[in-house]
Amino acid sequence: MPAPPPASPPAPPPEPAVAGPWRLEPQRPPLALPLAAEAVAAGFPSPADDYMEAAIDLNEVLIRHPSSTFFLRVSGDSMIGAGIHHGDLLIVDRSLEPRPGRIVVAVLEGAFTLKRLVRQQGRWLLEAAHPAYPLLELGAADDDRLWGVAIHVIHPL
Questions:
Q1: How far apart are CA 112 and CA 92, in angstroms?
Q2: Buried (b) or exposed (e) across 55-68, using 16+ Cβ within 10 A?
Q3: Where are the alpha helices (DSSP H) in the chain?
Q4: What would the pLDDT profile of 98-121 be if each residue is shown by its tens digit?
């Protein structure tokens, strides 16, 4: 009796919907949380501000272009003067046009860096928000490029 044909190898598992560990999951259901009707006073509190008005979904508030939005964790202190701290969570939109004055994610020498984009005498520069860090010239290496525009930063208090 002839031997049965060898079994075919099992099919590989399907690719996950998320392209990377920090990519927004497009199929995620909305998460609406209560939103207070009044803004919180940073000065004297008002006793009448004790009720909720509506719900808010942070995905809708913070993310305009889900397919081009990424989360990055901040490392280092070069942007501390802009209120961006080591360990903060950064929301980056790759569909936005990088303009002077915006905080951008650039790739320099193959690594991400977060800086403010500056245009000076026809050159594109990356400026830290910390006096200990020098201006960096974008384009000094062939593979330097702007990667995205930071739109929000989330950090614990």
A1: 12
A2: eeeebeeebeeeee
A3: 58-62
A4: 999 999 999 998 899 999 999 999
Q: Does residue 89 contact residue 73 with C-beta atoms inside 8 Å? A: yes
Tell me the helix, strand and coil percentages in the chain, rounded to 5.
5, 35, 60
pTM above 0.85, yes or no: no
Residues acting as catalytic residues = 78, 115
As given in the structure block, the two tokens for residue 51 are 């009720």
- Best CA proximity match to 150, nearest among 86, 85, 106: 106
Nearest-angstrom CA–CA distance, 109 and 13 = 35
Mean pLDDT along residues 130-141: 92
Which residues lie closer than 8 Å to 73 by C-beta, 6 or more apart?
Answer: 22, 87, 88, 89, 90
- H or E stretch at 70: strand 69-73
What does 106-148 look like in DSSP terms, one character per residue?
EEETTEEEEEEEEEETTEEEEE-SSTTS--EETTSSTT-EEEE
Question: Which tokens in the block code for residue 21?
Answer: 């560990």
